[in-house]
Amino acid sequence: MDKPVVRDAALLIFRAVLGVIFVAHGWEKLFMSGVTKTTGQFSAWGVPQPKLSVWITSIAELLGGALLVVGLLTTFVAGALALLIAAAIYFVHLSSGFFTVDNGIEFPLLLIASLLMIVVFGSGRASVDGVLTRG
């Protein structure tokens, strides 16, 4: 299993799945729930500057997720998204318990751990970063 092709394939799948999750969450905030409803939720949770925070979060999730999928600026994007999720844990999930069903920290912790794996191991050769750094 310690073959470069297997490692790169695993990183590609891992990055793509994680990126799609972020794109879906950003899409949901902007286009399904909408900015107004999401701003109300952020405000109820005590997130500072809720409308601005909704825009920053939504765009970061959409753009960051897409960049993870293609593997461009991967370690930077994964680090930035990990900080965003850390803020979400602090403002939203920390006081809700552990389990996702209660809006707890279970899912955000999984996201942070996944993002940190990408920061540590990079995007792999099957990525735009991998193509740009070859040669």
Automatic annotation (TrEMBL):
Highest rank taxon of the organism: Bacteria
Compartment(s) of residence: Cell membrane
Record keywords: Cell membrane, Membrane, Transmembrane, Transmembrane helix
Keyword Transmembrane: yes
Pfam families per the UniProt record, alphabetical: DoxX
Signal sequence residues: none
GO CC aspect terms: plasma membrane
Spans traversing the lipid bilayer: 12-32, 107-128
UniProt cross-references to InterPro entries, sorted A to Z: DoxX, DoxX-like_oxidoreductase
UniProt membrane topology term: Multi-pass membrane protein
Alphabetical list of PANTHER family matching this protein: INNER MEMBRANE PROTEIN YPHA-RELATED, OXIDOREDUCTASE CATD-RELATED
Similarity remark: Belongs to the DoxX family.
Name of the protein this chain belongs to: DoxX family protein
Organism: Corynebacterium deserti GIMN1.010
Lineage: Bacteria, Bacillati, Actinomycetota, Actinomycetes, Mycobacteriales
